[in-house]
């Protein structure tokens, strides 16, 4: 038997006593699936996963995508993105460094953003390096009726390149011309309906939302800042303090996340799979 224990009032639950290295029966998988929809973030404790097992569990939720920073995909396993601040002998980073340092939803800058991401902790610092998640359902539901009416039907431009204002080339490699060509600007509603639960959620990304369409620049920037600041208030946020071999699975359709940097001189090395989602509506 396994347990599912809520982690905060806002969102998140831990799953204890379930070994994801073994195939899950249909009944167990259905319970896990419903828990993910209910809690938005699931933390599977004490996992010992090979890349093949990580991929196999992830694929139960849908097809997997690679990543535009393809130089950081795990050799022989293009479904796995290495997220790491460690360096190799040649001085290059072992994985994507400085990942997620602004509030965002994974792959929001693509035509079919991610359903969810599954991040597996292989090395963590003794303290720090937390990941925070927010509940975009609750953020939307807490808006005033006037604000809900104001943003109904609005769309925004999302772009990976917009994140450059948050990172230097030393912190994160610049996209090559070939990589940039793979991620042209896309347009998504700033309020989306979850395709499985039917609930509405805010859909703005601090790192990737460039502008609201058909709105003056100053007004667009002010509204995006207002919505983002509103959505990350403490009552909507769960702070995850990593344990070694946690596998954390979050729903990119209804929550954002942000990664705090680990203390200097400490390594943080993780593997991430990303489940393909659908076009927001």
Output the keywords.
single chain; 281 residues; alpha+beta; Double-stranded beta-helix; three-stranded antiparallel sheet; 6 helices; 20% helix; globular
Structure description:
It is a single chain. This protein is of the alpha+beta class and 281 residues long. The protein has a single domain, classed as 4-Layer Sandwich (Double-stranded beta-helix). Helix content is 20%, strand content 26%. It has helices spanning 26-39, 51-59, 136-141, 145-151, 177-182, 217-231, and strands at residues 3-6, 13-16, 41-44, 73-74, 77-84, 114-123, 131-134, 155-158, 186-189, 191-193, 200-202, 209-212, 237-240, 247-251, 257-259, 269-276. It is globular, with a radius of gyration of 18 Å.
Number of helices: 6
The CATH architecture can be given as 4-Layer Sandwich
CATH homology superfamily: Clavaminate synthase-like
Instruction: Name the helix and strand elements from N-terminus to C-terminus, one letter apiece.
Output: EEHEHEEEEHHEHEEEEHEEEE
Q: What's the gyration radius in Å?
A: 18 Å
Mean pLDDT: 94
Main CATH class? Alpha Beta
Beta-strand percent range: 25-35%
Low-pLDDT runs of 5+ residues are: none
- Which outline best applies? globular
Q: Looking at CATH, which topology would you report?
A: Double-stranded beta-helix
- What is the strand arrangement across the widest sheet? 1-2-3-14-6-16-5-4
Largest sheet: 8 strands, mixed
Helix amount: 10-25%
The computed structural class is: alpha+beta
Number-wise, the strands total: 16
Euclidean distance between termini CA atoms: 38 Å
Number of domains: 1
């Amino acid at each position: 038997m396994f347990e599912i224990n809520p982690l905060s009032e806002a969102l998140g639950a831990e799953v204890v006593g379930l070994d994801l290295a073994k195939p899950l029966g249909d009944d167990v998988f259905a319970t896990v699936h419903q828990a993910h929809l209910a809690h938005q973030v699931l933390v599977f404790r004490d996992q010992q996963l090979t890349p093949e097992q990580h991929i196999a569990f992830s694929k139960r939720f849908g097809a997997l995508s690679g990543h535009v920073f393809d130089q950081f995909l795990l050799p022989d396993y293009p479904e796995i993105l290495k997220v790491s601040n460690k360096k190799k002998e040649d001085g290059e980073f072992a994985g994507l460094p400085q990942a997620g340092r602004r509030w965002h939803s994974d792959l929001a800058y693509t035509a079919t953003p991610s359903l969810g991401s599954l991040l597996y902790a292989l090395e963590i610092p003794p303290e720090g390096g937390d990941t925070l998640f927010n509940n975009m359902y609750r953020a939307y539901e807490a808006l005033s009726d006037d604000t809900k009416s104001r943003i109904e039907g609005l769309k925004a431009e999302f772009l990976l390149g917009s994140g450059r204002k948050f990172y230097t080339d030393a912190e994160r490699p610049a996209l090559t011309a070939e990589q940039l060509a793979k991620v042209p600007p896309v347009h998504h509603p700033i309020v989306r309906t979850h395709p499985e639960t039917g609930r509405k959620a805010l859909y703005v990304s601090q790192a990737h939302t460039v502008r609201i369409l058909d709105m003056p620049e100053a007004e667009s920037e002010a509204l995006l800042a207002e919505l983002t600041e509103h959505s990350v208030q403490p009552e909507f946020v769960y702070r995850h303090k990593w344990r070694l071999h946690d596998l954390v699975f979050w729903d990119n359709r209804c929550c954002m996340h942000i990664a705090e940097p680990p203390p200097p001189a400490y390594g943080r090395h993780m593997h991430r799979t990303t489940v393909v989602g659908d076009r927001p509506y």
